[in-house]
């Protein structure tokens, strides 16, 4: 189906479970096609190669993320070799939205492991060090 979409061919959603067909109908509705095509055209490693040398970068992956599984991160990480850490943070049991897997929709809050990773990344000392590299005193 994705190959048909990328080739501009009509999509055949017959035979799919009704709930899946409904979701795909919304995603690939003519009203959304321009956005979906532009979003699909972005390859994150290509964008990552354009990040300024030495920029602090953190990549996260949740072990329960079915949208972007951890096994898909190596090309992105390779493209980020010119940046500084902390690099990859694997978040055990978290889904794509940093929620513990299986969390009911109405109770989805940022998981403690995700908050911890973000706090470590954004520690004030690190911001000062990064700023000093970007804008030296001289």
Identify the notable features of this structure and list them briefly.
138 residues; 2 domains; 7 helices; globular; AB_hydrolase_fold
Please characterize this protein's 3D structure.
The protein folds into two domains: 2-40, no CATH class; 53-134, no CATH class. Helices cover 41% and strands 11% of the residues. The chain has seven helices and two strands; from the N terminus they run H-H-H-H-E-H-E-H-H. It has a two-stranded parallel ribbon. The longest helix has 11 residues, at 124-134.
Short recap of the structure:
The protein is of the alpha+beta class and 138 residues long. The chain has helices at 2-7, 18-27, 33-40, 44-48, 74-79, 112-121, 124-134, and strands at 56-62, 84-91.
